[in-house]
Specification:
This protein is an alpha/beta fold. It folds into two domains: 173 residues, Aspartate Aminotransferase, domain 1; 235 residues, Type I PLP-dependent aspartate aminotransferase-like (Major domain) (Aspartate Aminotransferase, domain 2), CATH 3.40.640. The protein is 38% helix and 14% strand. It is built from twelve helices and 13 strands. The strands form three sheets. It has a seven-stranded mixed β-sheet with strand order 4-10-9-8-7-5-6, sandwiched between helices. It has a four-stranded mixed β-sheet with strand order 1-2-3-13. A hairpin with a 4-residue loop joins strand 2 and strand 3. Helix 2 packs antiparallel against helix 9. Bound molecules: pyridoxal-5'-phosphate. The site of pyridoxal-5'-phosphate (PLP) has 12 residues, from helix 4.
Amino acid sequence: MKTYTYPKNVETMTRAGKVIPAGVYGHLGPGEGCMIPSSAYPFFVSRAKGSEMWDVDGNRFIDFMCGYGPNVTGYCDDDIDNAAMKQIKIGNCTSLPSYIMVDFAELLTATVKKDWAFFCKNGGDVTTFAVMIARYFTGKKKIIFVNNYYHGVAPWTQKPDSPGTLPEDCMNSLYVNWNDIDGLKKVIAENDDIACFISTPYMHGNFVDNELPADGYWQEVRKLCTENNIVLIVDDIRAGFRLSLQGSDNYFGFEADLICFCKALANGYNVSALCGKEFLKSAAASVPYTGSYWMSAVPFAAGIANINKLIQGNACAHFKEMGERLESNLMKTAKELNVPLVFSGPPALFYMRIKDKQDNFLLHQEWVAECVRRGVFVTNHHNHFLNLSMTKELIDEATTICSEAMEVVVKNHPELFK
Ligand SMILES: Cc1ncc(COP(=O)(O)O)c(C=O)c1O
């Protein structure tokens, strides 16, 4: 199988580096150290459709990152794009919001079984708003985080010593481990000023095997929060609409007070939403919070079309089926080659990792790079995503590519796979 080269990608990155800090900043760029070796990776896309993208050199990729989540019905989905185009022609960012905002709020709250919805742009906008509401409502300060969390980049989410933040930003942060009810009880017993507990619905931390909630975990967390006047915030920015269209709290059998959605809300059109219970609605109305583009109508039109398409397409069952197919195909190859491949997290958001004997990530990094060079876009540190346009044929094509990449790794290190 031919491996890709990236001359135009490199040339574009050189130009980018001159005019944009880091060239490509954040998780989409090589600066975070997740694209190693960087010679295996493309940096810029020229176009995308369905489950595929083409880089500026014309290389084609089957894309299991789905834009890190927003691609949920398929890149450039005609139904979503037509709804957005129709709205563009009649008004987007106007002096009063379009009535379509109300239509979207009604559809969203009915779908995720919450009483109200508040729209912003990015995931970090809504996690920040959720914490502000919790603090205002309870009159308390502290936030309980679950170690290995990611809730955006606002100062309150950062770890101590993070560049650009103050020690004060973390002064009200408390930390517990995932699935650790005893630890949570201890933190609650030792602190009387806790406003909220914020967590993703399962642990999808980066660079680690993902972990599902233990039996009864969320029900116990719910009980502890209620008993101690702690607002329970679920950050469903990554997993939302991938496990259940009703929200991941419903999927795991409990009810969040506030739940944050973003990535899969409008198939890439920029909108995020905080949805909540009735008792927090007047607190939400009292906290000053808005932005120039937060009521733009085009993403609302796209969001309505997107949610309807996900419902009609029984999307979550499709994601699960496609994820399970890839997992069982690749586990078969791994068994044949004696490679210790591990899948974790729900199949709809699978994380996969080759565990080497030292558990130091090098072999895994090497395999992922060989997959990318051959046309399957996966990452070594992050969970993956599926979308409604993914087909069994594409999954099987990806399997062939990833299997060849695994054979290359085995050939490079025969002593490790006896
Ligand atoms: C779980 C989780 N929370 C919050 C965020 C922040 O979202 P955004 O980057 O849109 O601000 C992300 C983004 O990846 C996320 O995965």
